[in-house]
Each structure stands twice: as C-alpha cells, then as structure tokens.
Amino acid sequence: METANTIAAINETTGLAPAAGGVVMLETALIDPNPANPRRDVGDVGELADSIRAQGIRQNLLVVPAPEGRFTLVIGHRRLAGAKLAGLERVPAVVAELDEREQRELMLVENSQRTDLTVVEEADGYQRLLDLGSSVEEAARKTGRSVSLVRRRLKVAAIDDDMCSHVGAAQLSIEDWETIADYEAWPDLQERLAKAAGGRNWNMAVREAKTERKWREWLASARATLAGLGIEPIEEELSETGQYSCPEGLRALEYHSSGDIGEAVAEWREEFGNDPVVGIRALTWGRAVVFYREVDEQAEAEAKREREERFAAEREERERAEAPARGFADASRELRLTFVSHLMELKGQPKGMGRAVALLASRFTLAVLTEGFSQWNSNADDIWASLTQSIEATSGDDGDGDFDPLRVSVEAMIKRDPARAALGLLIAAAEDAIDWTTWRDPEAIDRHAAPLYEALDALGYRQSESESDALNGSLIPSGDDGSDTGEAEAALEEDAKLRETPEEGSAEADEAGDAGETGEVVQAE
C-alpha cells in the first residue's frame, strides 16, 4: 500500500516547505529516481497502476530541480513507477529546493514507515545521513526513531556488500543481522554466519562461531601476555599425518586453552625457577598453548623415550578422533535443552506434547519409576534445572529435615501441570542417557539418541544437518566392527599401566606427585 502520509504532513514533520508555485504537472519522462533512495527495489506496482488508471494520483510527488530541465524524485518512487506502468505522461508534483541531506532525511522518513523496507535498506539510509554530517541523535530526531534503534541499524550498515550477498534473499531479523555484524573483526566467521543465515543450521553456526571467537580472543590475549613477559613462543605446525609432536629436546608438561597465562607462567617459575619453553598449537583440533621443559637426552633411556612418544601420538590421535563427538555432544544438547525449556515456559500445552510424552514414556518411564528420583545422578538434576530455570519453583523443607530441591521442584510442577512435568522428567531422563560416547556407538544411537529425537520431532524441533548426520552414524569411528579397538588401543592401555607405576627416580615419578586436575590446565602424562 502507498503510505498514508501526505506531503503536507512530511513538511510539517521536517519543517520544510514546498517551493513557490505549489503543485505542478510534470512529464514523467523528465523525472529521474533518486539514487540515494533507501528502497532498492520498488517491488510489484501492478495493483497500484490499476488504481492510478481508475482514480488518478491522489498524492503529489515531491521533486527537486536537476540540471538540463530535469527533476530528481524525492518522495513517490512507487507512484512514479505505477504512473508510468499505467501510461500517464504527466503527474502532479511539488517542486522543492532541498539539499542532499534534506532529501535523504525525507526519503528515510517516508520509507521507514513501510513494513516492507528491509533492515539493510534502512541501515544504509541512516549511514548515508551520517556520511553527510548528521549525528546519530540528529538522525534519530529527524526520522522519529530512538537513538538506540539508529545505533543498531548503523551496526548492520557496517556489514559490507559482499558479505550481505551471501545472505541472499533470506529474510533476517534485526537480531540476526546484528549477530553477523558482531563478527566484523573475523571475516571468515562472518562469512560462515552469512551463508548459514535463514537456514536450519543457523543456531549451530552461531554457537560454533562464538566458540571459535572465544578461542581466538583468548589466544590473542595469551600472545600479548607472553610478549609482555619477554617469552617468544614456538609456532607449531601439524605434521603431514595431521598430528603435533614435541620439539626435539623438550617435553610438554602443560596444555592451556583458557585462563590467565601470566599466572600460569608465574606458577611455573615458582616450581622450576625459570621460564617455560612455550609452543602454540593454533590449528584445528589440538589447539593449546603448551609449556615445555627441556630434558637431558642422555639421561633418558631410549626405550622409555620411544614409549612416551608413542603414547603421546596415540593420545593425540585419540583426542583428535574424539574431538568431533565431544564438541557435537555439547552443542546438540544445548540446542535441545534450549528448545524444550522454551516449551516448558509456554502458557498452553505445546503441539505434539502428547505424542512426545508417549514415545518417551514407552522407553524410559519404567527405569525412572523403579529407580525413583533419589537415584538420579547430578547430571539429571542439572538437566531438570536447565529446563525449568525460568519457571518459579517452590522452595522449603519437606517436613522431615531432608530438603530435596529436585523432588520439590518436580512435585510443584506436577501439581500445576502434570503433563508438562512428565515431559520434563522424560526429557531429563533421556538426556541423562546421552553423552559424547553415544555418538560413536551405533547401538547407543539406536537405543538412546534416536528415540529422543523422534520425540523432539513430534514437538516441532528442527534438526540441523550435523545432527541428522550424527544420527546416521557420521561420528562413528571407522573399523571392521565400528569400534576403536586395535593395536593402538592396546598400546594405550599398556602405556597407561606403565604410568600408573613409574620407575623409581624417573621423571614420571617426580612429576606424578605434581600433576593435578585444574579447570584451566591439562597436565601432560
């Protein structure tokens, strides 16, 4: 529909007045579209042309004089296109003297009131005003928008045209555009998001981009800290087999992928009296900042060294093989819990809930009922809390002094909505049976993962491609029987036993008492 604003209303809003002479009839052939119009495409004007044929143009166009007796259109691009399609040779117009900034303000005011103006078109309109000297506050005042909205649109305007082209025809929300804009400093991540925008892989792509950005930001901070400490790290490269190996004469003792590197170096100095030799593994699955200690090659028995190197290679190979399943397990669980927790908050019962409850109950209720809530492990407690964190919970003692938050929360929901409580309990039980190892075992996929996704599908959950692939076995290790068994596994077990009882006086024996579990550091075996 054409905007209901009249030229008079726009003039009143902006303080501008038409040129002397009022309305004139101008030849359509002398009127050129404004190249700065925020609307890039006037769209289908067929119905508008039919209306103009029947009733004429009821709202005047606004133009400014142009060289050689021509005029540049400011307001009425769709009306001009409709008039030309209807065969009109002349149209009513108001001729005004407006500078470029005033023209853009008027066009943005008129177009921003249309529901079909895209986020990118509006964002570009604000950016063009700023390019002509307007402040954010002034642009907001002239267009009747809030300052915060203008700032959000300008954030989108910063996305370059090549990146926007990856989005294609997808209709994105302002939040989606802002997410893409957030990755301006990482063009490769921004391109991945742009290509995933509007598709079923969007949520997964956003999560992966956040994880990648977090690592890159931490690594940049770690590099700066090391430089400030005068430590120049070794930039390690993957071998042809896709593995990392310790530099000659060094032994890796710590692997850092988060935390304060400055504190880690200080602790190292306190323990060893000098700075560590630092290696940076920045590529693919084995990313870490590695702290090495120099070793005396002559003091190391050849057999022991070979055993350690073999074990390190096997461990890295195992971690590389397990990394996709571990990462996918965390990402897919987060998506599933986010989806179900939203359903738990709905006022009405979610569509398909009856079928989903029936599917889950047929497979999991027996175990839940026979074991009782007290048999749930902490992981199930956490899952239930994630699903109901936005729902007001009942608190208090159960009367005998033994307060069980899980039982109180579940029983409170049963009183309010037993069907939804059943859904939450069954989802928690199903999720509790799934971890990263599930996705590497075809039997576990069939027994635990597939039934859960069958129920989620009934609730309207949309699987990403990576989830569909995982259900079809994409993360199952290759092998004759689909398992990880073989000589490599046997060697791992042998070396693990050897490390459990290190030789007296050996380096392993000295380090065994020092190695411990921390949230930030992985101690080398």
Description of the structure:
Helices cover 54% and strands 9% of the residues. The protein is extended and about 100 Å long. The protein has helices at residues 7-14, 46-55, 77-86, 100-112, 119-131, 136-143, 147-157, 161-167, 174-181, 187-196, 202-228, 261-272, 302-345, 353-371, 378-387, 405-416, 418-432, 442-458, 465-471, 487-500, 507-512; strands at 23-27, 31-32, 61-66, 70-75, 90-95, 234-235, 250-256, 277-281, 288-294, 521-523. β3 and β4 (70-75) form a beta hairpin. The chain has 21 helices and ten strands. The strands form two sheets. The protein has a five-stranded mixed sheet. It is an alpha/beta fold.
List descriptors.
single chain, five-stranded mixed β-sheet, 525 residues, disordered N terminus, alpha/beta
Please outline what is shown here.
With 525 residues, the protein is an alpha/beta fold. It has helices at 7-14, 46-55, 77-86, 100-112, 119-131, 136-143, 147-157, 161-167, 174-181, 187-196, 202-228, 261-272, 302-345, 353-371, 378-387, 405-416, 418-432, 442-458, 465-471, 487-500, 507-512, and strands spanning 23-27, 31-32, 61-66, 70-75, 90-95, 234-235, 250-256, 277-281, 288-294, 521-523. Helix 13 (302-345) crosses helix 20 and helix 15 packs across helix 17 (418-432).
Question: Overall 3D geometry?
Answer: extended
Straight-line distance between termini: 71 Å
State the assembly state of the protein chains: single chain
Percentage of residues in strands:
5-15%
Counting DSSP E segments of at least 2 residues, the number of strands comes to 10
- Can you count the helices? 21
Please state the average pLDDT score. Answer: 75
Radius of gyration: 33 Å
